[in-house]
Design a protein that fits this description.
The structure holds two protein chains of two kinds.
Chain A: H1 9-35, E1 49-54, H2 64-73, E2 87-94, E3 100-106, H3 114-118, E4 124-126, E5 132-134, H4 144-148, E6 155-156, E7 175-176, H5 182-185, H6 192-199, E8 205-209, H7 216-223, E9 239-242
Parallel strand pairs in A: 1-9
Antiparallel strand pairs in A: 1-8, 2-3, 4-5, 6-7
Helix pairs in contact in A: 2-6
Chain B: H1 9-41, H2 56-71, H3 73-79, H4 84-87, H5 90-110, H6 118-123, H7 130-153, H8 161-184, H9 197-223, H10 230-260, H11 265-274, H12 278-299, H13 307-334, E1 343-347, H14 361-384
Helix pairs in contact in B: 1-14, 2-5, 2-8, 2-9, 2-13, 2-14, 3-5, 3-8, 5-7, 5-14, 7-8, 8-9, 9-10, 9-13, 10-12, 10-13, 11-12, 12-13
The chains are: A alpha+beta, B mainly alpha.
Amino acid sequence: MTTSHKPDRRDFLKTGAVVAGAAIAPGILFYGIAQGRAPEEGASSLVRWGMLIDTSKCANGCSACVNACNHENGLSGKTGPQDSQWIRKLNIKHLQTGIEHNLPMLCQHCANPPCVDVCPTGASMKRADGIVLVDRHICIGCRYCMMACPYKARSFVHEPLSDQNPDVPRGKGCVEACTFCVQRVDRDEQPACVEACNADGHQAMLFGDLRNPESAIAKAMKAYASVEVRGDLGLNTGVRYQGI
Amino acid sequence: MTDVTCFTADCKKSKLFWGLLALGGLVMLSTLSAYFYIEHHGHIVTGMNNQIVWGLPHVFAVFLIVAASGVLNVASIGSVFGKKIYKTRSPLSGLLALTILAGGLAVLVLDLGRSDRIIVAMTHYNFKSIFALNMIFYIGFFAIVGVYLLTLMDRKLKPWSHPVGFLAFLWRLALTTATGSVFGFLVARAGYNSALYAPMFIIYSFAYGLACFLVVQTAMYKWSNIQIDENILGRIKNLLAVFVAASLYFTAVLHLTNMYFAKQWDFERFILVEGDTYPMIFWLGQVIIGGIVPLLMIFSPGAAKSPARILLASLLVIVGGHAQMYVTIVGVQAFPLAIFPGYAETSSFFDGVVHPYSPSTLEVMLALGGMATTFLLTTVAVRILKFLPIDRLDQKH
């Protein structure tokens, strides 16, 4: 027995949609990849990423930047002596006048970083765009960079880790620190701390290209006095503070 | 047929030898268990943290590394400066230089966060890093002192002992300069950042090395029932006194220099007067036990006739050396880093506070592995090769 089957309009549309979706979806995906920075395209020395922190806008008791950093980079947020802290809120009080400032302290991404100088294997390194990183593949966990850092910006991973953010691989026995959220910066996004500070309405952290005279950070640094922490060491830090 | 009786002196010594090896082996076993435990769980099981990043293992390791270069001094005085009584001691001095360095490096490697990547450390060099240069100096030291030992012990190669000995002398000076500079080059810490660390570590190495040499030599003489000539002991003990006094001098200069700089006052007050246990370890351990008491013992009447007294003085110098390393390595880290000089600092990351440190048992076990390594290697070497210094008293010293 044979039956003749006439495809109705609904079936036709359904099949058409599936075929069209299958054809277009990879195109959209590939377009996204094509627009991103190619893996072989390294960071450019025409850019120097930096951060300007206005201490007068940094609210006492606010820890939005710290929480955002912990979330973005998969840190536990614990604050024991053996826990990692990539950014911390620092309260400083002048010993004579008593004037107080609040500020976030993080890796200062120095142009002449002592951690890079002392690292025996070259695991501590500075990208062409000024971001100071640790190559987790060749860090031997000697901790000499922690001895050398004037800002206590580095942490040693003291225990095995689980549930890591795939964008931010970390590992027991290696040293780590703020990366300026390099995974975001490479996607033309702002570091998580800056985004969180802005979202909370404080606008205390400004991130951008110090080499581009048209960037907001370059303009702000030209307009207002800012300082390097331990400027006497001549490290030419990428993070500057205003209001101290 | 096996002889199960043990009446002869040689047989008893053989038993003692195996007993010593077993003792060293047991300590080594505890070191390895501590190492694997830390390797599995991470450094969270130690007393070290993000404030005190180098703890007890580094204290023991750096002491041994410094002493290793210093112990070679005995050979250098013989080969480079031609002193007879030191020439007979050159092979033992060279051997100890190798075994003590091996002990120090073993602890340093076992305490790495990623000790499994030791091959990375051997193949990736950042030549700006004094740490990397140290690794090159260590490897070179093993090679040069190894060849030097050959020239000392092989009759045919004997003529080479002078030039190779001279090279070894220069190399050891460079090595200790580099070891001192590991601390001297740290610009940010109040207790470091001084070029004085390089010559000061060289002087420390002279004292610690000679003290280690005297301890081993006394043990070997006791083992072989040899009485050391009092003229020879008198000269060596006086040399130890010069090195101990020079160590005290350099320590005094370092602190006096710091006291002249107003920015260093807080640190000096911490390390010399107020700071936790560190002033006590400095004054009692480094200065009194490791310096003044040994000097008094060395210069006490009849000291040259008393190897036991010189042995005790040497042991005290070694104890004082560990106290010095503890103050230099842990004490300086305990003092809070001044990120904003002139301001009081508070944070969740322990800024502005003195950092406490109590080493765990695991660290003690790890730290003792260096001494055990040295002990095992030395005991085996002196048993199978001729390292015992024999003085020919008819010769002019």
